[in-house]
Every structure is written in structure tokens, then in C-alpha cells.
Amino acid sequence: MTGQIKTASQKGKAAKRKGVRVEGELVDILNEYLGSKQQRFARVGASSGARPKNTDLPIEAAVMLTGDIICPPGFRYAIECKGGYSGIDLLTSNKGLDSFLSQSIESSASIGLDPMVCWKMNRKPWTCIIRERFDDISSMIKYTSLTGDVWYVYPLIDLLKRTTPRFWFK
User: Fold this and answer.
1) Nearest C-alpha neighbor of 54 from the set 110, 117, 113, 114
2) Beta strands of the chain (E only): which ranges?
3) Which of 45, 115, 160, 170 could form a disulfide with 104 if both were Cys (CB 3.0 to 4.6 A apart)?
């Protein structure tokens, strides 16, 4: 299909495949650093548009279906996973990144977890965006959203290496 213009349907399918790939990569990283035989991370099978409304579910089921990644019991974050979006600048407030953060806040608030965005920009290492400041990582970026909320952006692998499970689990 080289040189041909892709239809909206083809673009949608390619974006879905990319989302599945990126989510799978994140699950592998989280399981490597935080998982165990008893506690594993996994992809949520359905896209967010196909999921049932979490308000109609028992809290245990809602926790499992909130965010893009199913997390082990006691994990304190609801994870939104993003891939691509290379045009977004982490050093200045912008609508693109703010929309990711708003999505994370909305999904995590409904189940009483903290919001987290894990983002893999094209040809860049994974980043983790949370509200907690962790001073042991010099490459941290402070991001202030358009609404004035303060977030901290970390290289995900550095954060995983320099924290203990107590940081991640309740």
C-alpha cells in the first residue's frame, strides 16, 4: 500500500494495533519490575469505548476495568497508556498533554486511585506522569497544566529502579 492514501478505517485499525502493541510493552515492563507470579499486570481487553460503565459494577470489577492496564490488587494508580503524539512538548502547558491527564484523573477518581499516565513517544524512552514528587531522579520534569495542576514527569525505568514496592502499592 506504499504511496496510497489510507482510508479512515485503515487509519483506525493501524492506531488500534499500535495501542495494543504499546499497552503490551508497558505491561511487560511493569511485570518485570513490579509483578510476581501472584500479582501480574495485564491489558484491558476492550477499548475504553466498548467497556461497560464502571458506575454499574461492583468496585472490584470497576477497578479492573478502569484505565488501560489491569493492575494487581493494592496498586495505587489507575494507568492510562499513551503511544506516539510526538508533537507534544513536556516543557510547556498544552491541550494535548492536558487531555491525557484529564482522562487519567477522571478514570482514577471514580475508583479512588491516584492518576498516572505512562507515555511512549516515538523513538523515545517511556515516561511516567504522576502527581508525586520523587527527588532522587534528577531527570524529573515539573509540568504545570493549563488549569494550574502540577504533575511530575519521570523516565519510567528510572522511577521503577529507584523506588520500592511501597511507592507503588497501598
Assistant:
1) 110
2) 42-43, 69-70, 77-83, 114-120, 126-130, 141-144, 150-155
3) 115
Q: Which of 71, 81, 70, 17 is nearest to 44 (CA)?
A: 70
Q: How many CB atoms lie within 10 A of CB 142?
A: 11
C-alpha cell at 102: 484529564
Q: Which amino acid is at 105?
A: I
Model pLDDT for residues 57-111, shown as the tens digit of each residue: 666 666 656 678 999 989 999 999 999 888 888 888 889 999 999 999 998 998 8
CATH architecture of 11-168: 3-Layer(aba) Sandwich (3.40)
pLDDT, tens digit (0-9, with 9 covering 90-100), for 103-133: 999 989 988 999 999 999 988 999 999 999 9
